[in-house]
Design goal:
By secondary structure, the protein is mainly alpha-helical. The chain has helices spanning 3-33, 44-66, 80-104, 132-148, 151-179, 181-189. The chain has a single domain, classed as Four Helix Bundle (Hemerythrin (Met), subunit A) (Up-down Bundle), CATH 1.20.120.1630.
Length: 201
């Protein structure tokens, strides 16, 4: 078995596992709440950009797994040790994905709107970061770029994160509307995408 095939198999296994965790928790959230969350507040331009971007970011690593030659034009030439770091990061992200989904539970949605019975989650990774799904998800796909030795996959992950960061103020406006000062205080204590480290005087 060639090194390239090893990376293809590992990438496929990590991708499928992450997708299965996400799909399972999202399906449970929709089933238990019995509520269809509106996407109208997303705005058409952002809705379309995120959905089209989602197709690119999911199908580019899948294309690599099926046939690396399809993405040979965007090969970087990374050393094998760098690609193995990508594998390690991807495996770590699997654990983080499970942690964050199990923490937010039925509160997860695919839009900026919140569920009617949504409770503010401040435990698990949400104790330190308000949007760990965006941070971990981006890192997850960056790891695929490293495994596949491919700058297009890396770029797609970065662009997707930029779009999510642009959407975040709208999402947080909805959360402030729902939770008021409770969410404002939560914002002061946490970072949006990375933990907020207080510098001691």
């Amino acid at each position: 078995m060639t090194n390239e095939n090893i990376f293809r198999i590992l990438l496929a296994a990590i991708l499928i596992t992450g997708f299965a965790i996400s799909a399972t928790f999202r399906r449970k959230a929709d089933k238990y709440s019995g509520e269809k969350v509106s996407v109208k507040d997303e705005g058409k331009p952002m809705f379309l950009a995120l959905r089209l971007g989602g197709l690119v970011i999911w199908f580019s690593p899948i294309a690599y797994v099926i046939n690396p030659a399809w993405l040979a034009w965007s090969k970087i030439g990374l050393p094998y040790w760098a690609r193995w770091i990508g594998v390690g990061v991807g495996v770590t992200c699997i654990a983080l994905i499970y942690w964050l989904f199990s923490s937010i539970g039925k509160g997860i949605t695919s839009t900026v709107a919140t569920r009617t019975d949504h409770k503010l989650v401040t435990h698990g990774p949400y104790r330190w970061v308000r949007h760990p799904l965006y941070s971990v998800g981006t890192t997850f796909f960056l790891s695929f770029g490293a495994m596949a030795d491919n700058w297009f996959i890396l770029s797609a992950a970065i662009i997707a994160f930029i779009l999510l960061a642009m959407r975040t103020p709208n999402e947080e406006a909805h959360l402030i509307e729902k939770f008021g000062n409770e969410y404002r205080d939560y914002m002061k204590a946490t970072g949006a995408f990375l933990p907020k480290f207080k510098v001691q005087p």
